[in-house]
Amino acid sequence: MFYSGHRMFVNMAAPREEIAHSNVNGECSSLSGENEENTLLLVKGGIFLGTVAAAGMVAGFGTTLSVAKKKSPDWFNKGVTATAAVPESGASLALRALGRGSLYAWCGVGLISFAVWKAMGVHSLKEFRERMQSFFPPIPRNKEPPASAEPFSWENLFKSK
83 pairs with which residues across the strands? Predict the structure, then answer.
């Protein structure tokens, strides 16, 4: 057992499941349980957001293709396959443009982010967040609606007047 700041740690050589800390009031909680729950929540959130983003991209791309094919099927079919006049198909040209555009976008955002990070002289995400909060004004919180206001409902929002 040793004391560090305002927390007392118990048996740091114990297995991860048994690690606990005790604050000044003597309350104990499991460090590994909280960390595992937070990590699991972050992973689940990332998977959910990734799935939604991928579904949105596939749906948008599919919708765009179907609209283009319905609008002019002859031009659509000419762009699918390569011909003697046009040695590269429209699909391969579009994929190459998408790849290059994505590469330029990722590299550009990464370079700008890295430049801002170095210019600010920060060493951690927490420090970066605190520095950015000091630069920009705080986002005002919504005040509680008055008691006389009617409760929010989607029906009232979309109701025609």
Answer: none
Amino acid, single-letter form, for residue 128: F
* Residue 77 Cα distances to 68, 69, 81, 160, angstroms: 10, 8, 7, 44
pLDDT by 10-residue block (mean), the chain, 161 residues:
45 45 48 78 91 93 87 77 73 87 94 92 89 86 71 77 62
Distance between CA atoms of residues 79 and 85, nearest Å: 12
For residue 42, give the amino acid letter: L
Rounded to whole angstroms, what are the CA distances from 148 to 47, 156, 159? 41, 16, 21
Distance CA 23, CA 145 (A): 38
Q: In 3D, which of 77, 100, 80, 98 has the Cα closest to residue 89?
A: 80
Give how far Cα 121 sits from Cα of 114, 117, 130, Å.
Answer: 11, 6, 12
**3-class secondary-structure state, position 97:** helix
Query: Token pair of 143, please?
Result: 């005040």
